């Protein structure tokens, strides 16, 4: 990393910080992530050379993973474990929703994808529509000869649309309806102290390092989350993360999302991107209905299940639940299980069902 890149990263962070302060003043939801996201996205589309350091994003995911794991008290763990059947339904729902979205994209953009082989066409629409991690889906798509730029653009746009709309909808509902989720899902007040933070930091860093070594997806987030969760479930006390660290983590995650929208992004198949916007909005509406039905079946608050089944990212939806106090453990459990299941299943489903079907 040269001096020029360091300067661009620093200037991007300053602009992101200013955007966060504006959102705080405007009382927007998740201001420390939403403000940086909007500022860097607009600046990037305008051609301003914004930069995000992967090391900072990793650190942000590490902090957020550690924070979210602290919600999993033994009582909450028992509650989440009892929802295994609802989590399975949510995984099936995500796979079905992605498959329908992919079939629609394939039909709508048949002419634009005509220059690709039948296998590559199906891979492009299939992996672009799967509700999983952007980097993982893009890598799988590349292995099957798909248009990886379209796949990556689809996931980036879907994630940002969800992050920019769902928190506002939840905040509006909270202000107008006074959402009150299960009190068991709210964090217990814990006073911050240095030794506890140091122990948490060292343990979660080791967990993240193991996940990196194992080459798992989202290693800094997942490793920190699992270790923090284990420490809390074991009954360790005095573990807390300062609010300033949590805010800083949200800021760098917001920046990492915003810088994806370079000027070239806008010119990447405008009709395809328009379809992604429409498809994402439909998926959000359908997921809202599914989350509402699942809430009635489980007895939990609809806001919690809507966030848990929303087609967004783990960190972003869990941050929304944390800031608005809408059931972090349940949202995190649903999102984590869905991501793991999708990453495990989408490849075999493509090989066993989609490719043979395409050949016929």
Topology:
Layout: H1 3-25, H2 31-45, H3 54-69, H4 74-81, H5 84-108, H6 118-129, H7 134-143, H8 148-177, H9 194-213, H10 219-233, H11 243-258, H12 263-266, H13 270-298, H14 302-309, H15 314-324, H16 328-359
Number of helices: 16
Class based on secondary structure composition and strand pairing: mainly alpha
Helix fraction by DSSP (H/I, runs of at least 4): over 70%
Distance between the ends: 50 Å
* Number of self-contained structural domains: 1
Largest beta-sheet details: none
Indicate the proportion of strand residues. Answer: under 5%
In the predicted model, the low-confidence regions spanning at least 5 consecutive residues are: none
Calculate the mean pLDDT score and round it: 87
Rg (CA only): 20 Å
Shape: globular
Order of helices and strands: HHHHHHHHHHHHHHHH
Number of strands: 0
How would you characterize the overall build of this protein?
This protein has 360 residues and is an all-alpha fold. The protein has helices at residues 3-25, 31-45, 54-69, 74-81, 84-108, 118-129, 134-143, 148-177, 194-213, 219-233, 243-258, 263-266, 270-298, 302-309, 314-324, 328-359. The longest helix has 32 residues, at 328-359. The protein is globular and about 60 Å long. The model has no long low-confidence stretch (mean pLDDT 87).
């Amino acid at each position: 990393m040269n001096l020029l890149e360091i300067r661009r990263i620093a200037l991007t962070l300053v602009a992101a910080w200013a955007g966060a302060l504006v959102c705080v003043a405007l009382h927007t939801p998740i201001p420390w992530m939403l403000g940086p996201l909007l500022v860097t996205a607009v600046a990037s589309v305008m051609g301003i050379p914004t930069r995000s350091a992967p090391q900072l994003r990793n650190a942000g995911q590490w902090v957020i993973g550690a924070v979210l794991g602290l919600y999993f008290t033994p009582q909450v763990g028992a509650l989440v474990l009892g929802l295994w059947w609802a989590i399975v339904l949510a995984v099936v729902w995500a796979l079905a929703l992605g498959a329908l979205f992919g079939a629609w994209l394939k039909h709508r953009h048949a002419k634009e994808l005509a220059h690709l082989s039948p296998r590559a066409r199906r891979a492009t629409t299939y992996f672009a529509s799967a509700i999983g991690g952007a980097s993982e889906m893009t890598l799988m798509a590349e292995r099957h000869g798909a248009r990886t730029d379209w796949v990556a653009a689809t996931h980036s746009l879907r994630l940002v649309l969800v992050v920019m709309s769902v928190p506002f909808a939840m905040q509006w509902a909270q202000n107008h309806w006074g959402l009150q989720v299960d009190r068991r899902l709210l964090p217990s007040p814990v006073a911050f102290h240095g030794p506890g933070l140091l122990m948490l930091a060292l343990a979660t860093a080791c967990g993240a390092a193991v996940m990196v070594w194992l080459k798992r997806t989202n290693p800094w987030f997942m490793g920190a989350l699992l270790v923090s969760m284990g420490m809390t479930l074991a009954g360790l006390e005095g573990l807390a993360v300062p609010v300033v660290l949590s805010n800083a983590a949200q800021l760098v995650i917001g920046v990492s999302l915003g810088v994806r929208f370079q000027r070239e992004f806008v010119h990447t198949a405008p009709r395809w991107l328009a379809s992604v916007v429409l498809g994402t909005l439909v998926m959000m509406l359908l997921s809202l209905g599914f989350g509402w039905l699942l809430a009635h079946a489980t007895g939990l608050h609809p806001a919690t299940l809507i966030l848990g089944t929303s087609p967004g990212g783990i960190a972003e939806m869990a941050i929304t639940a944390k800031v608005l106090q809408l059931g972090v453990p349940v949202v995190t459990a649903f999102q984590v299980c869905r991501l793991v299941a999708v990453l495990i299943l989408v490849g075999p489903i493509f090989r066993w069902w989609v490719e043979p079907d395409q050949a016929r």
